[in-house]
Structures are given as structure tokens and as C-alpha cells.
Design goal:
Elements: E1 5-12, H1 16-28, E2 34-37, H2 46-49, H3 61-64, H4 80-93, E3 100-101, E4 105-112, E5 117-124, E6 127-138, E7 143-148, E8 162-164, E9 179-183, H5 187-198, E10 203-208, E11 214-217, H6 222-257, H7 259-273, H8 280-283, E12 296-299, H9 302-308, E13 312-316, E14 319-322, E15 326-329, E16 334-336, E17 339-342, E18 346-348, E19 355-358, E20 361-362, E21 370-371, E22 375-376, E23 382-384, H10 393-414, E24 419-421, E25 429-431, H11 438-441, E26 449-451, H12 462-470, E27 479-481
Parallel strand pairs: 1-2, 1-6, 2-3, 4-19, 6-23, 8-17, 9-10, 9-17, 10-13, 11-12
Antiparallel strand pairs: 4-5, 5-6, 7-18, 14-15, 15-16, 19-20, 21-22, 24-27, 25-26
Helix pairs in contact: 1-4, 1-10, 5-9, 6-7, 10-12
GO molecular function: flavin adenine dinucleotide binding; N,N-dimethylaniline monooxygenase activity; NADP binding
Protein name: Cation diffusion facilitator CzcD-associated flavoprotein CzcO
Cofactor: FAD
Length: 482
């Protein structure tokens, strides 16, 4: 029998997080052996999977970009193709692309304490393969890449047109002259509506049950453009990044402390961009407070422009049933449609759906507690990367990578074979994600818990984390080394 291939670090996922994690290993821990297991045929994760019209970032690129590799140019909210190119260019620059194993769907990972080693099982083309590693790092995000979320929609089998989900956008869908309805009001919906209008749709209607906060932001960063002319890409990126971090953090704090003020500011901005007399309180005034759910950003007000020029509209109502020619609403209104897009959300799936086993016992994630929102209580030599819900994903991904590098350096220098967070039973429990978005609420009961005190508490605050995580002692009485 051939021995399983062994590496120092095994990374699950070759998306934005996985490529970044591997790049940190390559630049900060030279000589470390590692592999990246990617279930799909290509790298890029989200930015390769989603192909719907107008797909773009919903965070500015100067914070969504890696800290160690500047995002070039002044584009703030970039298109998916540009982001994908940036991720893959990073992989090539740091040699990560040579370590990615494609079509490897990780199904389980088993830790053996006496051997201080993970055995990881993956399905590859209908066969089962195993690898072993000293350290396992899950960088697969928290979305189910196989299935998007679609609620039960009465009568959909009667509809004579086409129903598509943004996660599985068909290449042959021609929108020219089509009447389209986009069901949803989140980041995907507000991106799709103006993009579909630009693609030649006869008309696009965004059908929402309730409004979402939508805020227009500049599509390009003027400060970045001016600074680059003076100090170059590297320095201008660093300054712009910190400027945007400060703005994001301030907006979030003010939203939580003075929600009515932020509500008024956003409403005033929307009124200025919408047609005179538009029913802004019906369609753009949510019942919840700002940042109870993620705020949707639109570049240069493109959604509002589409509404203003008549190529798009918003209807706030509930679906009674599909009909042969469209959608009948609870109010009695009927929306004629040739194409219906169910931008109704995503399904959560942690660790890429892989089962974790520690010394023969299956790990139930909801029975564990997250340490610094990157490790699990009772699970040795394991880290996971999950970004912020109120700021750019990569801000947290970079912090996690820096911390894991510190752990690995410590293990190397002291000869430690394992490190594991040990939970103090006196620490209270709260949900890992205090967020009202549907995709979180549907699955929050399956996620690890967080604690009520540091280092088990999750702050959702990059400025706080940048100080506490980078400055954290590795001998903190919670991490146990062996």
C-alpha cells in the first residue's frame, strides 16, 4: 500500500481566503510544505462560481484586496472578472498555483492525538484519496457551493418562462427584450437589476418582501487616484486602505449607536437619487436598524439611475403564486415576466461540508466554541477563515493568516506537536453571528458558538482585532501546547 502524501499544512479551498493563506505561508514560512485542496476545476472560489450579469464586490477593493498585495488602480467596487484575475495573479506571484489540487472534494478529516496528525479524505473523480498533515486550515468560506437557497414558491411549475438562480446562471440566457423579475433585495439583487437593464432587458422589476438599506458610493476612489500619482501604488494603497477601514468602522459604530440618524442620512441620499415623488418609504425604508443586516452598496447609484430612467422598478409585496405568464402578488397585482431570477439567498455550509473527527469522536460544530473566531475548542491543530459581516472579508482573512503563521512558528521553534484551545465552562455562550440576514438565521443553530468574554468573544471590529489578535500572547492560558 502506498503511503498517503504528507504536508505540514493542508488548506481546504482555493478561493480568496485559501490563496491568501497559502501566500502567507509562502512568504512568511519558507520551507513549509503545503497543499491546497479545491473541490472545483478552477481557483477563485466565489469569484469564479458566480457568473450572473454585473457580478462585483460589495466591499471596496482597497480593503477586500490582500494587505500584502495592493489592488492596483482606483476602482472601488470591482467586477467579478477583475477580482478573479487579481486572486489568480496573486497565486502565480507567490507560487501557490503549483500547490493546488483540483477536483478534490474533502469529505472528512480525522485527528489522531498520539500521531499528532490529520488524515484527510477527499473524493477525486469518483475515487477516494487521503493525505496527512500536521495542521489543517479550512478556507472554504461558509456558503454551499452546490445549492443556492430558494424558498417554496407556489405554482412555479405553471410558469411558462424561465426561472434561474444567480448561483447557477445559464450561459445561454439572452435577456434582450425580455421582461424580467428579480426576487430579492440583497446585494445580489441590487447588482443584478441595473446590470440586466444594461444587458437589453425590456424592463427589470425588483420584487421584494421588505426593503433593504441601499447606499450609493463612488465607483472609483478619488483619493487613491490622486495619491498614486504622487507616491505610487504601494503607499497610496496603504493610505486608502486605512482611510476606508476608518470610514467603514465609523459608519458601523454610528449605525449601532444612533440608528435613527443613519436611517435619515441614507433616506436623504436615496431621495436625492430617485425620481420626484418616489415612494421611498415604501421601497427603501427598512423596518430594521442599519447594519442589523448587511448594507447594500451600489456604485455611482446605478440602481437608482435605472429606476429613474424607467428601465427598472421596485415592487414591495409578497408572492401569492406563479402564473403561466408571471407572478400574482398578495395585493392582487400581476407582474408579467419572461424570466424570473430567484436572488433569494445562499445556503450556509461550514468547512466545505467536511466532517471533523478528533480521536474517533465526530465533532459537532454547534457544541464547540470558537476561539478568536478562527479555531475550535477541543480541535487540535485546526484553524478556519471566516470574514467579517460588517466589513471586507479579507480584513479578517489576513489577520487569521498572520495568527496561524505565528502559531506555526511557535510550534517549529519549541518542538510542539499540537496546539488546541481549551474551553472554560464558566464562559457564557452566544451565537457566533449576531446577524439577522436570512442565510444566517436559517443555519445559525448549526454553527460553533462564541463566548461572552475574550478570547472567545467575536467583536466584528477590525480595528479592535488588528490590535488584540496581532498582539495576543500565545501563552494565554487558553491555548494548550503539547
Amino acid at each position: 500500500m502506498t503511503a498517503a502524501e504528507h504536508v505540514d499544512v493542508l488548506i481546504i479551498g482555493a478561493g480568496l481566503s485559501g490563496i491568501g493563506a497559502a501566500a502567507h505561508l509562502a512568504k512568511d514560512l519558507p520551507g513549509t510544505t503545503y497543499a491546497v485542496l479545491e473541490r472545483r476545476e478552477t481557483s477563485g472560489g466565489t469569484w469564479d462560481l458566480f457568473r450572473y450579469p454585473g457580478v462585483r464586490s460589495d466591499s471596496d477593493m482597497h480593503t477586500l484586496g490582500y494587505r500584502f498585495r495592493p489592488w492596483r488602480g482606483d476602482t472601488a467596487l470591482a467586477d467579478g472578472e477583475s477580482i478573479l484575475r487579481y486572486v489568480r495573479d496573486t497565486a502565480r506571484e507567490y507560487g501557490v498555483d503549483r500547490h493546488v489540487r483540483y477536483r478534490h472534494r474533502v469529505t472528512s478529516a480525522s485527528w489522531d492525538s498520539p500521531a499528532a496528525r490529520w488524515t484527510v479524505t477527499a473524493e477525486v473523480g469518483g475515487e477516494t484519496r487521503t493525505m496527512t498533515a500536521d495542521f489543517l486550515w479550512a478556507c472554504s468560506g461558509y456558503y454551499d457551493y452546490d445549492r443556492g437557497y430558494t424558498p417554496d414558491l407556489a405554482g412555479r411549475e405553471r410558469f411558462g418562462g424561465r426561472i434561474v438562480h444567480p448561483q447557477h446562471w445559464p450561459e445561454d440566457l439572452d435577456l434582450t427584450g425580455q421582461r424580467a423579475v428579480v426576487i430579492g433585495s440583497g446585494a445580489t439583487a441590487v447588482t443584478l437589476v441595473p446590470a440586466m437593464a444594461r444587458a437589453g432587458a425590456a424592463h427589470v422589476t425588483m420584487l421584494q418582501r421588505s426593503p433593504t438599506y441601499v447606499l450609493s458610493v463612488p465607483g472609483t476612489d478619488a483619493l487613491k487616484r490622486r495619491l498614486t500619482k504622487v507616491v505610487g501604488e504601494g503607499a497610496s494603497y496603504a493610505v486608502t486602505r486605512w482611510k476606508n477601514i476608518a470610514v467603514q468602522s465609523a459608519l458601523y459604530r454610528v449605525s449601532r449607536r444612533r440608528p435613527q440618524l443613519v436611517r435619515k442620512v441614507v433616506r436623504k441620499a436615496n431621495v436625492a437619487l430617485l425620481p420626484p415623488g418616489y415612494e421611498v418609504d415604501t421601497h427603501f425604508n427598512p423596518t430594521y436598524d442599519p447594519w442589523d443586516q448587511r448594507m447594500c452598496l451600489v456604485p455611482d447609484g446605478d440602481l437608482f439611475r435605472a429606476i429613474k430612467d424607467g428601465s427598472a422598478s421596485v415592487v414591495t409585496d409578497r408572492i401569492a403564486t406563479f402564473t403561466e405568464t408571471g407572478l400574482e402578488l398578495v395585493s392582487g397585482e400581476h407582474l408579467e415576466a419572461d424570466v424570473v431570477v430567484t436572488a433569494t439567498g445562499l445556503n450556509l455550509q461550514i468547512f466545505g461540508g467536511a466532517e471533523l473527527v478528533v480521536d474517533g469522536e465526530v465533532v459537532q460544530p454547534h457544541e464547540t466554541m470558537a476561539y478568536r473566531a478562527m479555531m475550535l475548542s477541543g480541535v487540535p491543530n485546526f484553524a478556519f477563515t471566516v470574514g467579517y459581516t460588517n466589513a471586507s472579508w479579507t480584513l479578517k482573512a489576513d489577520l487569521v493568516a498572520e495568527y496561524v503563521v505565528r502559531l506555526l512558528k511557535r510550534m517549529r521553534s519549541t518542538g510542539s506537536r499540537s496546539v488546541v484551545p481549551v474551553r472554560d465552562d464558566s464562559v457564557g455562550e452566544v451565537p457566533l453571528m449576531d446577524f439577522e440576514s436570512g442565510y444566517v438565521q436559517r443555519m445559525v443553530h448549526t454553527l460553533p458558538r462564541q463566548g461572552t468574554v475574550a478570547p472567545w468573544a467575536l467583536k466584528q471590529n477590525y480595528l479592535y482585532d488588528a490590535v488584540t489578535i496581532r498582539g495576543a500572547r500565545l501563552d494565554d492560558g487558553v491555548l494548550r501546547w503539547a
